[in-house]
Amino acid sequence: MKLEVQHRAGARVITGCTKSTPIQALLEEAGLLALSDQGDIAAARLRERALRDLQRTPVALAAQRTEGPTVRIEVTRSTRSQAQGQRQHSRCSWRVADETVAKGAGLDTVTVEPMVQGPPSWTDCSKVHFWPDLDDMAPTPSDSSGSFSARLAAANRAIATLPPADHLWTDGSVDANGDGGAGFALFIRDKLRLSQAHPVGQGVAELRTEAEALRLGLQAVVDLQDYSTFQGIRILTHSQSLVRRLASGPARQSDSTCYTIWTLLSAASASVQNTFNIQWIPAHVGKEGNDLADSEAKRGSTLPQPAASLDYITASASLVTNKHAIAATRYYI
Questions:
Q1: How many other C-beta atoms are found inside a 10 Å radius of the C-beta of residue 46?
Q2: What's the CA gap between 321 and 48, in Å, rounded?
Q3: Which of 27, 241, 243, 313 could form a disulfide with 132 if both were Cys (CB 3.0 to 4.6 A apart)?
Q4: SS3 for 210?
Q5: Which of 237, 236, 231 is nearest to 206 (CA)?
Q6: Which class does domain 128-308 fall in?
Q7: Per-residue model confidence as pLDDT tens for the chain (333 residues)
Q8: How far apart, in whole angstroms, are the C-alpha atoms of residue 202 and residue 308?
Q9: Looking at the chain, which residues constitute the CATH 3.30.420.10 domain(s)?
Q10: 3-class SS string, 139-173
Q11: Residues 318, 211: contact at Cβ < 8 Å?
Q12: Contact at 8 Å (CB) between 286 and 152?
């Protein structure tokens, strides 16, 4: 209860609303979910991870059980008639509760993509560096001309501070129908060497498309016969979440795409003379590589989509989106 009080106080700080504001309206305006909804998401995420676990861990085995709800019998005595009666209370197991949350998000009828064990923690990461922030770029409205100038200047400064290297621009896109596309553009010595568009699948999360774009771009680099002569690679993406996820290290990757990215980074960095620098760059700043990767990603979303198993990243995003949609319905009703 005390945690709920602090949660609502934080929502009032965000919105400036008074204490008389209805709680649901307050949370919706602040863009926050109730702690009970966040608890449902955390439990459902645990189940989704367990269903994808290839090892027979206790939580994985528990998630796959199909027992019905636990029934608790409480015996009471009537003080008036002195007769004994029974009252039954049923309490759903955590599996049943999580299945209900997953069903609401449309995750109950799809094929899940198994999780993989990431590269070992002793993988050599000395030539791979991550830059998820632009320290000198203040947040400003994205639709103002001043914001565009500020973002472009910050992007140019970030690129200028990196060691001299060739450029790999990557981007992912999800259209209104949920079709995903991935695109990349590879510049060698400031000249376009290769650009490609690929479909990712229907109903995937945008983070998954961004990860696929980076994976495909890295694979293209490795497939080039002369990649070992490159002066290093700058990988430029506008997905901060992806950069931060990868920066957590090779052993922390359980998603198959992120696992493959680290495997490629580890293999390629052993041959490339210099380093790999993965830098977050704001989207739509007018850089040639940025715009080309963006157009390739959009083109990829228009291509025939392959049948894709549901990965954990997409499942997790679907759970959050569904809970926000339910919360908005409560608010607007």
A1: 15
A2: 15
A3: 243
A4: helix
A5: 237
A6: alpha beta
A7: 688 899 999 999 999 998 899 888 899 889 899 998 998 899 888 888 888 877 777 877 777 776 555 545 454 544 444 444 444 445 566 677 788 888 888 887 778 888 777 677 777 788 899 998 876 544 443 444 447 788 788 888 888 888 778 899 999 999 998 899 999 999 988 899 999 999 999 888 899 999 999 999 999 988 887 766 677 889 999 899 999 999 998 888 878 899 899 988 888 877 666 689 999 988 878 788 889 999 999 999 999 998 878 888 888 888 998 898 888 887 665
A8: 7
A9: 128-308
A10: CCCCCCHHHHHHHHHHHHHHHHHCCCCEEEEEEEE
A11: no
A12: yes
| DSSP-based three-state secondary structure for 302 | coil
Of 84, 85, 99, 128, the residue nearest 40 (C-alpha): 99
Strands 276-280 and 233-237: parallel
Question: In which residue are the tokens 């699948």 written?
Answer: 201
Two tokens, residue 193:
């060497």
Cα-to-chain-centroid distance, residue 8: 26
